């Protein structure tokens, strides 16, 4: 799943949990899913941050060289 899909699924889970229609077992299941999705999303953000940092450093190196 993409980051955007993860966010959409988390929003769906939140609506389900707020509805008050889930049993305790269902609530535990969707909460566990939300935790897994949150962890994956955090990892995606961390990976993106790392890539951006690398690209930024490369751009800085290019702009430091005289023409």
List keywords for this structure.
0% strand; mainly alpha; rod-shaped
- Strand content of the residues, in percent? under 5%
- The end-to-end distance, rounded to whole angstroms, is 43 Å
Q: What kind of sheet is the major sheet?
A: none
- Helix run count: 2
The level of helicity is: over 70%
Outline type? rod-shaped
Q: Which regions contain 5 or more consecutive residues with pLDDT less than 50? A: none
Question: How many beta strands in the DSSP annotation?
Answer: 0
Gyration radius, in Å: 19 Å
Total of domains = 1
Q: How do the helices and strands follow one another from N- to C-terminus?
A: HH
Multimerization state: single chain
Structural class: mainly alpha
The residue-averaged pLDDT reads 94
Can you walk through the features of this model?
The protein has helices at 3-19, 24-64. By secondary structure, the chain is mainly alpha-helical. It has one domain. α1 (3-19) runs antiparallel to α2 (24-64). The relative contact order is 0.12. The mean pLDDT is 94.
How is the secondary structure organized here?
Elements: H1 3-19, H2 24-64
Helix pairs in contact: 1-2
């Amino acid at each position: 799943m993409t980051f955007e899909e993860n966010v959409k699924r988390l929003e769906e889970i939140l609506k389900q949990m707020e509805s008050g229609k889930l049993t305790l077992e269902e609530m535990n299941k969707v909460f566990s899913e939300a935790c897994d999705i949150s962890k994956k999303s955090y990892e995606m953000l961390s990976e993106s941050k790392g890539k951006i940092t690398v690209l930024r450093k490369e751009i800085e190196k290019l702009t430091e060289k005289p023409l």
